[in-house]
Design brief:
about 325 residues; mainly alpha; globular
Length: about 325
């Protein structure tokens, strides 16, 4: 028995991931930043992955759960499965993501309710700087790639402005919702929560999570989770192929996604339509407006946006230094 555990432990340590405690803690901190971004409407953890320099590693880690991994699991070769998948990388990253989601969800919800302009200003600055960081990866900067940037920006701008629609509650559609929503985790500029709201299933899915052990709810959660697993496995391979084959064009489109997403995080908004979901008011439609005047709130918002820009640039510089160390 001990030999089996030792073998599994050795296989776990051989799996790709941080090779020191310090790097493991740093990866968990990056995961924490991703989790904090994921709980903000309109902000994607994929953006943070780009900033912190782990985007490619994240896509590769998800891709490591392939048919070979599944075959080894079904043949009870757990050591071989652990050694082939990027388990150590994902354990550290997911620890940080889950810690942020559990620990910061209420805080961020409170801040968005009480200080929306200030919080959106901070995230506007974060995404502005992220556009610069990701845009550096566009090579060469030619008319074709600039056209891809424009295409991504227009698509994202229209997407984040769509009004949530009424959709069926059949299990195949729930599976599709899980597959679509999870893809936002590795797409910068688009949040999974927003995609669920747009698909008309945010309230439906969150309602089932409230009582997960009721048979019907458990079935919905299982189907949604299955869709999420299939979606991220398939999409990570598509994205990896695009990055390998057409890196410049793919980075251009992703940069455009982030530019278009600025529409969602513009600090000054006017609410046009709301809906009550599980006793809470959710905004269905809003429009961006200009600030009311150059008062104290305006200068605080500008200062927070500049702070967001500085945070991203410093974080990106630190991440590059870590890579070269």
């Amino acid at each position: 028995m001990s030999k089996s555990r030792l073998t599994i432990r050795e296989a776990f340590m051989k799996s790709p991931g941080p090779d020191s405690v310090r790097k493991g803690v740093l990866l968990a901190l990056k995961g924490f930043c991703m989790g904090a971004a994921d709980i903000i409407p309109g902000v994607s953890g994929g953006t943070v992955a780009f900033i912190t320099g782990i985007y490619t590693d994240l896509v590769d880690a998800i891709r490591s759960f392939d048919l070979t991994f599944v075959r080894r699991v079904f043949t009870l070769d757990f050591s071989g499965a652990l050694a082939s998948a990027h388990v150590r990388f994902l354990v550290c990253l997911l620890f940080g993501i889950l810690t942020a989601i559990v620990g910061m969800a209420r805080v961020m919800h409170y801040m968005l309710q009480t200080h929306p302009v200030e919080i959106w200003s901070l995230f506007f600055g974060l995404i502005m700087a992220s556009i610069l960081v990701v845009g550096r990866e566009i090579e060469p900067l030619n008319p074709l790639h600039l056209g891809c940037v424009a295409l991504g920006a227009i698509g994202s701008f229209l997407l984040v402005g769509m009004i949530p629609v009424s959709t069926p509650e059949t299990l195949p559609f729930i599976f599709l919702c899980g597959a679509i929503a999870i893809c936002a985790m590795i797409l910068p500029g688009i949040s999974g929560a927003f995609l669920l709201l747009m698909l008309g299933k945010y309230e439906y899915v969150t309602r089932t999570l409230k009582n997960p052990f009721i048979l019907d709810n458990f079935l919905v959660i299982t189907v949604f989770a299955a869709g999420a697993v299939v979606g991220i496995i398939v999409f990570s391979r598509v994205l990896h192929y695009l990055l390998e084959r057409w890196h410049g064009a793919t980075m251009s489109v992703l940069t455009g996604f982030m530019i278009g997403a600025l529409r969602k995080v513009w600090p000054w908004k006017e609410i046009l339509e709301t809906a009550s979901i599980r006793g809470k008011i959710h905004v269905l439609r809003e429009q961006n407006v200009l600030p009311g005047g150059m008062d104290g709130e305006f200068f605080l918002a500008v200062g927070l946006a500049c702070a967001g820009i500085m945070v991203v640039l410093l974080l990106e510089r630190f991440s590059r230094r870590e890579e070269n160390a």
